[in-house]
Write a structure and sequence with these properties.
Layout lengths: L2 H23 L1 H22 L1
């Protein structure tokens, strides 16, 4: 395995770890936002139909 590849893999793992922490931290707000956007989309589709 070349040093470049291992460095790239390490970077990916670090990025994934950071992403998981961010998602866990913002899980509540993300859930609320997705629910709100789904509700608004449903409302709009209901209006169009």
């Amino acid at each position: 395995m070349r040093p470049q590849t291992s460095c790239y893999v390490f970077f990916l793992l670090h990025l994934e770890n950071y992403y998981v922490k961010w998602v866990l931290k913002n899980a509540i707000s993300l859930t609320f936002l997705s629910f709100f956007s789904l509700a608004s989309m449903h409302d709009m589709s209901g209006r169009f139909v």
